[in-house]
Design a protein that fits this description.
With about 290 residues, this protein is an alpha+beta fold. About 35% of the residues lie in helices and about 25% in strands. It has three domains: about 45 residues; about 120 residues, Uridine Diphospho-n-acetylenolpyruvylglucosamine Reductase, domain 3 (2-Layer Sandwich); about 110 residues, Enolase-like, domain 1, CATH 3.30.390. The strands form four sheets. The protein has a five-stranded antiparallel β-sheet. The protein has a four-stranded antiparallel β-sheet with strand order 11-12-13-14, with helices on both faces. A three-stranded parallel β-sheet has the order 1-3-2, with helices on one face. A hairpin with a 2-residue loop joins strand 6 and strand 7.
Amino acid sequence: MKDFTYVSPSSIGEVVGLLSENEGCAALLAGGTDLLVQLRNTNSDVDVVIDVKKISQLNDISYDVDNGLSVGAAVPCSQIYQSDIILEKYPIIIDAASIIGGKAIQNRASFGGNVCNSSPSGDAIGAMMALGATCEIVGSNGVRTVPINEFFIAPGKNILMTDEILVALKVPPPKQYSGSGYIRFTPRAEMDIAVAGVGSYLEVDRKSDQILSARIALVAVAPTPVLSTSVAQMLIGNTPIENTIQMAASLAQESISPITDVRGTAAQRKHLIGVLTKRSLNLAVSRVK
């Protein structure tokens, strides 16, 4: 591992200043579950590691009925799935937080880190995309908000500039008669990266039982996580019955062109996306309230 300077600022302004000064040669440390492995295993250009765990704004979970949920970028998974408000209103987030690594990893790993690592197989990404989350970003030019489905540009790469930090993930307040769910497949129950994953969100008209809006996020089947607009459009206006869900699953399979790698074949991933789309939609329907 290359030698680097370690700093632990107490404010976001200090972080932005350090990022600006080091011009792409600084890395942010929250949980460190990905970063420390990367620093050990690559010829990194990182000269400065900026520990952001002490910044209160990055470690906060808040909710109000008008603005919805805000999850600080450094909040660990274990804190997320112990949140009563998230359990009550956003169970899909619990679905993802409870399967990222094992219990020890969950005490360190954060949703913000999972998003910024920008892996095509990020579980937090699948859940947050299904919920229509946005990313609050702070840099030298101020604050900007970006839909999470526009955050990723390639495997391991995202839109953050070298002087920017992801501060929080923002989720709209849940609509009445809506439900969501995230399901993935891994060879083992924990400690594995998803071979495929699907996050589903539905809003249903209680009188007609028709789907008013839908979001389907597909994980580990493309260079970046995918928000499947074709599946969502197919669902809208239909009722969430078995035949509708089966059609959505088939369309999800048709919409992807996955690769074969060490974790699974392209054919396996296509099959899994059909199965997981059906299961995540059924889970979302069961949670409509």
